[in-house]
Amino acid sequence: MQVQTYLLFQGRCEEALNFYRDAIGATIQALMRYSESPEPPPPECTPARPDMVMHASLQVGDSQIMASDDPSPGTRPFSGFSLTLSCADAAEARKHFDALSAQGEVTMPLGPTFFSPSFGMLKDRFGVHWMLMVAQEQAGCGAA
Fold first, then answer.
1. How far apart are CA 133 and CA 129, in angstroms?
2. Going from the N-terminus, what domains does the chain have, and what CATH number goes with each?
């Protein structure tokens, strides 16, 4: 059994995927627009624009994130979860933290903590919450 993250955007899915590609080196594995669907969507799932993303898959290291544009009317802001990006070292954490926080909001500056030599939290420009960290054992700071 596996649990995967599925992000819903309000008409900005493709922009977000491209942002994550540039910010953290993610790879867009698949992207299908509503206009490319072999079957028309049900009326309650008809998007505002046919070019909106119906389904996409993004590879981030060994992890996969799925995403689409939410065709539902109104907005449902992200809340109650964060994506965690484990980095090899403090330099990699800084690079990705700075890229992801551009036009976003830093909620905890990147820096050393009791559990990590480099940890920080942010909300990116799409409202997605992220935690970036370097694990103790990856940093060579394991318990003696």
1. 14
2. 5-69 (3.30.720.100), 83-134 (3.30.720.110)
